[in-house]
Amino acid sequence: MKVVLLKDVEKLGREGEIKEVAEGYARNFLIPQNFVKPATEQAVQEVELKKEKKTKSDQIELAEVQKIAEQLDGRELFIKVKEKDGTLFGSVNEKTIAKTFADEGLKIDPKNVKLEEPIKEVGDYDVKLELDHGLEANIKVILVPEEV
Question: How many whole angstroms from its chain centre is CA 91?
Fold first, then answer.
């Protein structure tokens, strides 16, 4: 029986694929669990239409991410920190850097900021941002003492 996968099914396939499965497996397990539906002409057309829409939306998203990467690459980010003798009270981590970008109106997910370890001293640091679609941007984070 030919079926269209509505969800990713382990050891069978990914959403949107058309697969040949045993009729009993489809009728007794896959269809009741809402994992598949029979591969009628209409179902196949719906899958093709969804794939086209997803491709277009992926292209638009890629263009947006490329634009953000170009804006960020080589940028200097100044973060004011409380310190004593060059050592910070606390540390600067991925969340701090993402929040500083958010304050400037750029949405960067903390998981995209790649630090080997939290920054604990005043100074300049090279930080890599790994964005969606495999794009990267390198920024310089500059920690400056907060004026009292």
Answer: 25
